[in-house]
Design brief:
heterodimer; A: about 290 residues; mainly alpha; MetI-like fold; globular; B: about 280 residues; 13 helices; about 0% strand
Chain lengths: ~290, ~280
């Protein structure tokens, strides 16, 4: 009876565990195994190269580190510009204000759209056709025709343009989380501060900012993890499967796999990148613990 | 008296500035979408000449063309089928598992749950390479079922987490009553736990539906045939074939974006709740 009972309990988790074991655990293990081999994905023989792939990544692969730098640059812009914008918007909405719900609904539309849609729509707006390029038209209208150019094919502006479109798509996340955080701060604290004669700026600095530190760390971690792994947006915005000078790590992994058929190397790149992500989020987490 | 007016007018100025700031950001959010929709209703020549948001003539043929010639009709149905079956699978499988983790006792339950949660935390950016190899071995690559199973797996951990958190807080009395009435465990899960979990299930459904509809990378590596592809990947290959036909491409983008915007507007309560809950938990 007891045995039957516990067997019955396993039935509940069996489907989840089976799917998870096949489609998560096995690939997870294989990534680490394949990372040690040179393999084209088709042939029966894999050549064991030990840590050779990793050596190549660290000491020879200039493209890889360039892609890493690109992702880091976009992340930096997202961390500063996007999150400051999100925080300002949340702060502006955290009061008795008309149309609050309208703003909240609108600001979260870009995040629900797919990166393909966002990338292609923006590409159409800022790159492809001179006549339809709104940004360039505005610049010409403002008397700055020398600034109007092809934003995405000029290597000097391409990466920043990508970063700004990424911020456009992503700020709604930070906005919602910041707003939720701000709303947990008890109103009485502000009341008390005002009675004590604190200015709006002082109560912002002394009450709002310190209480929001944990939320800021959370948003920062989510931003880093999300932005470092960005790539669909870049493919659809810049075009070309591997995106040239705006390449990012995930695109390099895809290029190793589909472009040069080096499955082992692609896995090694994936492991390296995963480690980098874990280390960054760990540092941010520790940093927040110290801050408190 | 003078003071009151002074403060009042100061407040009005501040509120106006705040509204100007918020409205300008809102316009920036909406403009590209309106531009996309309006371009999808223009002809190729009009796109170059007419930059107004409301076209002089509405050319709905673009949609018919995109649906038929562009083949988006087919891909649209693929996306619907993938989204519905993956979300259905996730709801059933993850709610069963979450219920077991929360209520039933069996050896290894803690360990299994921790493994699921670890999977939620650890990023493995290269896993699609190994997944591709695995699906090839199982002869599931370039098949809808392979894609559906992979996508169910992607949504499992988070859904189990959300549902278990809910079941942990749920009062046990109703289940006890059902048990005394002779209801089986499966019966209790189906008739008692699931109906009570409706608010969380809504969050699980909406977020997974968004994720599946917008998914790109797995669909890219799994499917070779355009006839199996969901919209996101089909759009890319469409752009490759008809590089210059912008109205048709914009019609394709609108077909892809509109369902998700509608779902969002209808379910935004749950989406906002989901995001903020995640924030509180994190």
């Amino acid at each position: 009876m007891k045995l039957r009972n516990s067997l019955e309990n396993y039935v509940f988790v069996l489907p989840a565990v089976t799917i998870f074991a096949i489609f998560y655990v096995i690939p997870f293990i294989w990534v680490f195994q394949l990372g040690l081999f040179e393999w084209d994905g088709i042939s029966f023989t894999k050549i064991f190269v030990g840590l050779g792939n990793f050596k190549e990544i660290f000491f020879q692969d200039v493209n890889w580190w360039h892609a890493m730098w690109n992702a880091g640059y976009i992340t930096l812009i997202a961390l500063t510009f996007q999150n400051i914008l999100a925080f300002m918007l949340a702060w502006a909405c955290d009061r008795e204000i008309r149309m609050k719900n309208f703003y909240r609904v609108i600001f979260f539309i870009p995040p629900v759209l797919s990166e393909v849609v966002v990338g292609m729509a923006w590409r159409f707006i800022i790159n492809d056709i001179d006549g339809a390029n709104i940004i360039n038209r505005m610049l010409i209208g403002m008397g700055l025709p020398q600034l109007a150019h092809n934003w995405l094919s000029d290597p000097n502006t391409a990466l920043t343009t990508v970063a700004i479109v990424h911020c456009w798509k992503g700020f709604g996340w930070g906005f919602l989380i910041f707003l939720a955080g701000l709303q947990t701060i008890p109103r009485e604290l502000y009341e008390a501060a005002r009675v004590d004669g604190a200015s709006a700026w002082q109560s912002f600095k002394k009450i709002t900012l310190p209480l929001m530190v944990p939320v800021m760390v959370l948003v920062a971690i989510l931003t880093v993890l999300g932005t470092m792994q960005v790539f669909v947006l870049i493919v659809s915005l810049v075009g070309g499967e591997f995106a040239g000078h705006t390449s990012v790590p995930v695109l390099r992994i895809l290029a190793s796999m589909r472009g040069s058929s080096r499955f082992g190397y692609a896995c090694a790149q994936g492991i390296t990148f995963g480690m980098v992500l874990i280390i960054i989020s760990f540092i941010q987490y520790r940093f927040s613990k110290k801050g408190q | 008296m003078k003071h009151a007016i002074y403060y009042k007018s100061k407040e009005v100025v501040a509120n106006t500035l705040i509204h100007i700031f918020l409205i300008s950001v809102a316009i920036t959010c909406l403009y590209p979408l309106l531009w996309m929709i309006s371009s999808s209703l223009k002809t190729q020549e009009m796109i170059f000449k007419d930059i107004s948001l409301i076209p002089h003539q509405f050319r709905l043929e673009n949609y018919v063309l995109a649906w038929r010639e562009g083949g988006f009709g087919r891909n649209f149905f693929n996306s619907i089928i993938y989204t519905v079956s993956v979300v259905f699978g996730i709801v059933i499988i993850s709610s069963m598992a979450a219920y077991a983790f929360s209520r039933l006792r069996f050896a290894g339950s803690k360990f299994l749950f921790i493994i699921f949660m670890a999977a939620m935390m650890i990023p493995i950016p290269g896993s699609f390479v190994a997944l591709y190899v695995l699906l090839n071995k199982l002869h599931l690559r370039n098949t809808p079922i392979g894609y559906i199973l992979c996508m169910i797996n992607v949504g499992l951990s988070t859904s189990i987490f959300l549902l278990k958190t809910f079941f942990d807080k749920m009062p046990k009395e109703l289940e006890d009553a059902a048990r005394i009435d002779g209801c089986s465990k499966i019966g209790i899960w189906w008739h008692v736990a699931l109906p009570l979990a409706k608010p969380v299930l809504a969050v699980v459904i909406v977020f997974n539906a968004l994720a599946v509809w917008n998914e790109y990378i797995l669909a890219l590596i799994i499917f070779d045939n355009r006839s199996y592809m969901p919209l996101q990947v089909a759009l890319q290959s469409f752009q490759g074939e008809f590089v210059t036909n912008y109205p048709l491409l914009m019609a394709g983008l609108t077909i892809t974006a509109l369902p998700i915007i509608l779902v969002y507007l209808l379910m935004q309560k749950y989406i906002i709740k989901g995001v903020t809950q995640g924030a509180v938990v994190g």
